[in-house]
Amino acid sequence: MAFPSMKSAVLVDGVVLNGPTTDTRAGEKFVEEACRLIMEEVVLKATDVNEKVCEWRPPEQLKQLLDLEMRDAGEPHDRLLKLCRDVIHFSVKTNHPRFFNQLYAGLDYYSLVARFMTEALNPSVYTYEVSPVFVLVEEAVLKKMIEFIGWQEGDGIFNPGGSVSNMYAMNLARYKYWPDVKEKGLSGLPRLILFTSEECHYSVKKSASFLGIGTENVCFVETDGRGKMIPEELEKQVLKARKVGAAPFLVCATSGTTVLGSFDPLDEIADVCERHGLWLHVDASWGGSALMSRKHRQLLHGIHRANSVAWNPHKMLMAGIQCCALLVKGKSDLLKKCYSAKASYLFQQDKFYDVSYDTGDKSIQCSRRPDAFKFWMTWKALGTLGLEERVNRALALSRYLVEEIKKREGFKLLMENMPIFAFGTFLQASERWKRDQSSGKNLMWWPQPSRRGC
Ligand SMILES: *Cc1c(COP(=O)(O)O)cnc(C)c1O
């Protein structure tokens, strides 16, 4: 960008307004070189088992190694690139085939490119005028997810996390039964009570506290030996709550519990909800992806009877974090009614296009990332059949792991008839673990095969 000649310079408060706001050439060069670095140090090394998962340092040591201080003067190009290099070096390579942790299933290249694109375009999906493509993409993805749930009609929104989706659902259910809550707040409400299983995700408790329902009004229903909610116990608890004058309004069932990977019996739970007029929310943040597999979707049998579903494609389906949808049954426009604030500066009703595409008022956020796009790109690249294969492979791998644990000396399967999903706590600390720990050896001894592509 050329500087304007002094003659045409617009000077206000000593600032030349029609000069460049930034050094464009330096900026472009930096982006180019940093992209190359990301390509070399992150993407190309992502699947290389000879690379380390992490260059681990304890916090105090890491603080010394990284230059975290922000100073008055900006730093030069080479220094900034060095900083980028350091950040990559000391970060955990979550795409590494030997990285085993909650949430992650490996690197999806198509979702990654979608992320690069949206980072570069920097859209926000509140209005169609700002994000025409991404608004339509979100609509298309939600429609398809709704089909997989088995609803004739539905609505939805992508949220920053399954936890937030659960909170949305809780608030929607409350709004459905007590719509005055939006204007009048909590003062006019009876003592609300909701039901979930002992194995539910902790976000249920957080949501209850955040929404002013209170954690004591979350009733944790007993589960069977496999971690599934017992519908008869649920019904007993509902009746008990009614007896003491509380107002039951919501059941939050889980499809794929966090620790045991259990799937609550949705059909039977839906019966209880129907009998007692309760909103059924299914937290399928994790297990929802099984809907894409003809082989495994029966795990969520009855999900079409839910009023709302939380489903995170960023887990088993490997869309980048975060990619989480809340889906709501029917065409009641409940999301919009519940959340809209009708900001006149943003959601004008007299725009030059169909303003029903201004979907932002369905959200409690203002600016919102186009998370659906990551999933859309992957879906486009793999097709529904490819996604199905991804789910089948993930489940086959977990089955393989179970068999390996059974065979392997020093390991103990904590639960017979292991659920086919599960992460986390099913390994008992073994002698080998203790040995490796005391010798400081790499603790990642998990068996082959690598999880590439699952
Ligand atoms: C992962 C998970 C969540 C939380 O989702 P975030 O996107 O991490 O907020 C909630 N419920 C269940 C069952 C989950 O597996």
TrEMBL record:
<keyword id="KW-0663">Pyridoxal phosphate</keyword>
<comment type="subunit">
    <text>Homodimer.</text>
</comment>
<dbReference type="InterPro" id="IPR015421">
    <property type="entry name" value="PyrdxlP-dep_Trfase_major"/>
</dbReference>
<dbReference type="InterPro" id="IPR021115">
    <property type="entry name" value="Pyridoxal-P_BS"/>
</dbReference>
<dbReference type="InterPro" id="IPR002129">
    <property type="entry name" value="PyrdxlP-dep_de-COase"/>
</dbReference>
<dbReference type="GO" id="GO:0019752">
    <property type="term" value="P:carboxylic acid metabolic process"/>
</dbReference>
<protein>
    <submittedName>
        <fullName>Acidic amino acid decarboxylase GADL1 isoform X2</fullName>
    </submittedName>
</protein>
<dbReference type="GO" id="GO:0016831">
    <property type="term" value="F:carboxy-lyase activity"/>
</dbReference>
<dbReference type="InterPro" id="IPR015424">
    <property type="entry name" value="PyrdxlP-dep_Trfase"/>
</dbReference>
<comment type="similarity">
    <text>Belongs to the group II decarboxylase family.</text>
</comment>
<dbReference type="GO" id="GO:0030170">
    <property type="term" value="F:pyridoxal phosphate binding"/>
</dbReference>
<dbReference type="Pfam" id="PF00282">
    <property type="entry name" value="Pyridoxal_deC"/>
</dbReference>
<keyword id="KW-0456">Lyase</keyword>
<feature type="modified residue" description="N6-(pyridoxal phosphate)lysine">
    <location>
        <position position="315"/>
    </location>
</feature>
<keyword id="KW-0210">Decarboxylase</keyword>
<dbReference type="GO" id="GO:0005737">
    <property type="term" value="C:cytoplasm"/>
</dbReference>
